[in-house]
Design a protein that fits this description.
TIM Barrel; binds ligand LLP; Lyase, Ornithine Decarboxylase, Chain A, domain 1; 21 strands; globular; 8-stranded parallel beta barrel; alpha/beta; 2 domains; 9-stranded mixed beta sheet; 12 helices
C-alpha cells in the first residue's frame, strides 16, 4: 500500500495535495507520510510476533523527533550511534531500556550519558572500548550491560561504502576472536554481558547473507553458553533493502520467517535495527525546477534542492525515482537533474527519461525518507530544508526551514578583527 498517489494527475500524500503543501511551506522540503511509516513499522514488527523481539529503529536513517516519536509510540526502541541520537531518542520519549548503542567511536562523555540513562545495552566494537566502559561505569558506581558486536565476515553484496560485516571493515570484533573477548568481559567488575550483536551492511536485497550471519552467531552463542556466559539478546542489526528502482528485496515477512526459522528455540530476545526499510519509502524530497538548460547534446534540469539536501546520488551513485508533482502530459524530456551546488557530483539523476519539466514545476525525488535529511548539510551556506509530516488530511511542519541567522548561529568574530 502506497500513500503517495496521483489524484487527478496531482501527487498527493495521504489525503493532502503535495502542491498545496509547497505553496505554504515553499521548496525544497522533505515530506513524510505518517500512515506509510506506521504501516512499515507494523508489518515489520508483526512479522516477528511469534518470537520475543524488539524493533529498535535506526535513528541515523531519520532522526527527526516527530518520526522517532511516532515509532516509539507504536512500540519501537531506538538504535543510536551518538550522544546526539540518545538525546533525540529520549526527547521522543523512548524508554531507555529500549535503546541500543553501536558505533566504533563512542566518546567518553557519550558513554557517561548512556550509562547515566541506563540504556539497554552497549554494542562493543573494540577491546579498548570495553575496558573504557568498564572503567567509567566503575567510577560512576553503575553497571554497563553489553553485547559484543561481532564481525561475521559475511559479504552482503551491497554497495562497498555501506557494507560493514566483512573482515576488512572497521566495524565489530572478528567473530573468531570474540570468544576470547567475551571471556575477558566476564572478568570485568562493572560489565554485565547480555548478548551478541552484529550488523552486516545496508540496502541488502538478498536473504542469504542474513541467514549466513545468523548461522555463525548461533554457533558463537553455543560456545558462549558452554562457557557459562549468559546470552539473552541477539541483535542482528538492520540492513534490509528497499525498492528504489527495480530492486526486489525480500518482503519483511519473508525476511522474518527466514530468521525465525533459525532463531526459534534459541532462547533469546531478537533485536532488529531496521532504518531504511521503515522510513525510506515513507518520505520524498519536493523540489522546484529553476531552469532547463541546454548543455551540448543534453538537457540539464536545474532544481532548487542540492546534494547538501540529499547526498545519496552524489555519494553512492544511488538511484531515486523523480516524479512530477503535477502530471502535465506534455511529453518527455531526457536529461540530468542537477542541483545548484558548485560540484559536478551535485546531481539527482543522469541521462533520465523524465516528464517534460519546465521552469516553476515541482518534482518529487522519491524514496528519500532514509538517509535524506539526516545526512544533509549546510554546504554552500544553504539553510537546511523544512520537514513536513502528513497525518490523514492534515500536514504538520516537523522541522522549520533554517534561516540565514541559523547559518551563523554560534559563529563569532575575534575582537581584534572587528
Ligand atoms: N544498525 C547499525 C549498526 C548500522 O550501522 C546501520 C546502518 C543500521 C542499523 C541501519 O541499517 P538500514 O536498516 O538502514 O540498512 N547512508 C547510507 C546507509 C548507511 C548505513 C549505515 N548503517 C545510504 O544512504 O545508503
Amino acid at each position: 500500500m502506497n500513500y503517495f498517489n496521483y489524484v487527478n494527475n496531482r501527487l498527493s500524500c495521504e489525503n493532502v495535495s503535495v502542491a498545496s503543501i509547497a505553496e505554504t511551506v515553499g521548496t525544497p522540503f522533505y515530506l513524510y507520510s505518517h500512515k506509510t511509516l506506521m504501516r512499515h513499522f507494523e508489518v515489520f514488527d508483526q512479522a516477528f510476533s511469534p518470537i520475543p523481539h524488539r524493533i529498535c529503529f535506526s535513528a541515523k536513517a531519520n532522526s527527526n523527533v516527530a518520526i522517532l516519536r511516532a515509532l516509539v509510540k507504536a512500540g519501537a526502541g531506538v538504535d543510536i550511534v551518538s550522544g546526539g541520537e540518545l538525546f533525540r531518542a529520549l526527547q521522543a520519549g523512548c524508554p531507555p531500556d529500549r535503546i541500543v548503542y553501536s558505533g566504533v567511536g563512542k566518546r567518553d562523555d557519550e558513554i557517561v550519558f548512556a550509562l547515566e540513562k541506563d540504556i539497554l545495552m552497549f554494542n562493543i566494537e573494540s577491546p579498548q572500548e570495553l575496558a573504557v566502559i568498564n572503567d567509567m561505569a566503575g567510577r560512576l558506581g553503575l553497571r554497563a550491560r553489553i553485547s559484543i558486536r561481532v564481525n561475521p565476515d559475511v559479504n552482503p553484496h551491497t554497495h562497498p561504502h555501506i557494507s560493514t560485516g566483512l573482515r576488512e571493515n572497521k566495524f565489530g570484533i572478528d567473530i573468531e576472536q570474540s570468544l576470547e573477548y567475551y571471556r575477558q568481559a566476564r572478568e570485568l567488575s562493572n560489565i554485565d554481558i547480555i548478548g551478541v550483536a552484529c550488523h552486516i551492511g545496508s540496502q541488502i536485497t538478498d536473504i542469504a547473507p542474513f541467514v549466513d550471519t545468523l548461522d555463525r552467531l548461533k554457533k558463537l552463542i553455543g560456545l558462549l553458553r558452554q562457557q557459562g556466559i549468559d546470552v539473552r539478546y541477539l541483535d542482528l542489526g538492520g540492513g534490509l533493502g528497499i525498492t528504489y528502482n527495480k530492486e526486489a528485496p525480500p518482503h519483511p515477512t519473508e525476511y522474518a520467517s527466514a530468521l525465525m526459522a533459525e532463531a526459534t528455540n534459541l532462547g533469546v530476545t531478537l533485536i532488529l535495527e531496521p532504518g531504511r526499510v521503515i522510513v525510506g519509502n515513507a518520505g520524498v524530497l519536493v523540489t522546484k525546477v529553476l531552469y532547463i538548460k541546454e548543455g551540448g547534446d543534453k538537457h540539464f534540469i536545474v532544481v532548487d534542492a542540492g546534494m547538501n539536501d540529499l547526498a545519496r546520488p552524489s555519494l553512492y551513485g544511488s538511484y531515486h525515482e523523480i516524479q512530477p508533482v503535477i502530471r502535465q502530459g506534455t511529453g518527455r524530456l531526457r536529461g540530468d537533474v542537477v542541483g545548484p551546488i558548485c560540484e559536478s557530483t551535485d546531481f539527482f539523476a543522469k541521462n533520465r527519461d523524465l516528464d517534460a519539466f519546465k521552469r516553476g514545476d515541482l518534482a518529487a525525488v522519491m524514496s528519500a525518507g532514509a538517509y535524506g535529511f539526516s545526512m544533509s548539510s549546510n554546504y554552500n551556506s544553504r539553510p537546511r530544508v523544512a520537514e513536513v509530516m502528513v497525518i490523514d488530511d492534515e500536514f504538520f511542519i516537523i522541522r522549520n526551514r533554517e534561516s540565514y541567522d541559523d547559518l551563523i548561529r554560534g559563529e563569532a568574530v575575534p575582537e581584534s578583527l572587528r
